[in-house]
Amino acid sequence: MCEELEVPVNHHSGSAVPVLGDYEVANAIFLVEVTWWAHRALWHLIFSGVLERHPGLQLVFTEQGTAWIPETLAQLDYFFGRMKAAVGSQEREWGLGIVGSLSLTPSEYWARQCHVGCSFLRPAEGELRHRVGLDRMMWGSDYPHSEASFPYTREHFRLTFGQMDPAEVQQIVGGNAASLYGFDVSRLTPIAARVGPSVADTQRPLAPADVPDDAKKCPAFVV
Questions:
Q1: Which of 15-19, 196-200, 205-209 is predicted with the least confidence, judged by mean pLDDT?
Q2: Cβ within 8 Å of residue 154, ≥6 positions away
Q3: How confident is the model at residue 14 (pLDDT cuts 50, 70, 90)?
Q4: What average pLDDT does the segment 35-54 reach?
Q5: CA–CA separation, 220 vs 79, rounded Å?
Q6: What are the helix and strand counts (H, E) for the chain?
Q7: Cα(47)–Cα(42) distance, rounded to whole angstroms?
Q8: Mean pLDDT for the chain?
Q9: Rounded CA gap, 22 and 26, in Å?
């Protein structure tokens, strides 16, 4: 049997959203619901056994926020446990045949095979890094979209990463992506040194009151 390759698959926000119709309220509903429709791929792929059958598959959830992950994993683990061990429960009646074929809990599949493209990483989300998985997080600016952190990306770094261990910042802003996608770090390092931001740039905390007003179009500056 051939060894399965490690293949990263990116799942972008907006996927699987149903047609909401040509109504004035549709865009508002889209904004509220768009990330949920994207998140649901996680439990579909876990409970359908896709991540079990393809342990080399690496799944990246991009532009969907980060704060949802710890609570969602806790909920999925809860249902997994009920389906497997809650004798006499409806959960076990409906789910035992499914979870019996899975070797890991949902949070363990996440830790083995899932990642998050952290567009708009807010300070409060940065604080969740060890619950999400420091090695699972990959920062993104969302450039050139209108809601991108550009041209205030350095301010974004100061706001979110200003009090974080520089080694952890390095993982989130580049190291994790380089590892997952197989980037040639030796070739990229001189470019990063020239373009920045430097550790010194990042390690100057920015107070929320000092966020430029026109930067607030980017969700990363919501505190």
A1: 15-19
A2: 196, 197, 201
A3: confident
A4: 96
A5: 32
A6: 12, 4
A7: 9
A8: 94
A9: 7
Q: What is the architecture, at CATH level 2, of domain 7-221?
A: Alpha-Beta Barrel (3.20)
168 Cβ contact list (under 8 Å, min separation 6): 129, 134
pLDDT, residue 214, reads 93
Q: What distance in Å separates the CA atoms of residue 180 and residue 60, rounded to the nearest whole number?
A: 10
Give Cα separations from 60 to 10, 113, 165, 181, 219 (angstroms).
Answer: 5, 9, 24, 11, 20
User: Under DSSP, is residue 149 helix (H, G, I), strand (E, B) or coil?
Assistant: coil
* φ and ψ at residue 203, rounded to 5 degrees: -85, 40
Secondary structure (3-state) at 150: coil
Quote the DSSP letter at residue 53.
H
Cβ-contact 71, 131 below 8 angstroms: no
Whole-number Å distance between alpha carbons of 66 and 59: 15
Alpha helices in 86-184 (DSSP H): 90-99, 106-113, 123-126, 129-132, 153-161, 166-170, 176-181
DSSP summary character for residue 213: G
| Domain residue spans of the chain | 7-221
- Please report the DSSP string for 33-51 in residue order: HHHHHHHHHHHHHHHTTHH
As given in the structure block, the two tokens for residue 62 are 């991009």
For residues 115 and 134, what is the distance between their CA atoms, to the nearest angstrom? 10
CB-based contact 159:123 (threshold 8 Å): yes
Token pair recorded at residue 173: 């802003």
Residue 89 has φ and ψ, to the nearest 5°, of -85, 160
pLDDT of residue 3: 62
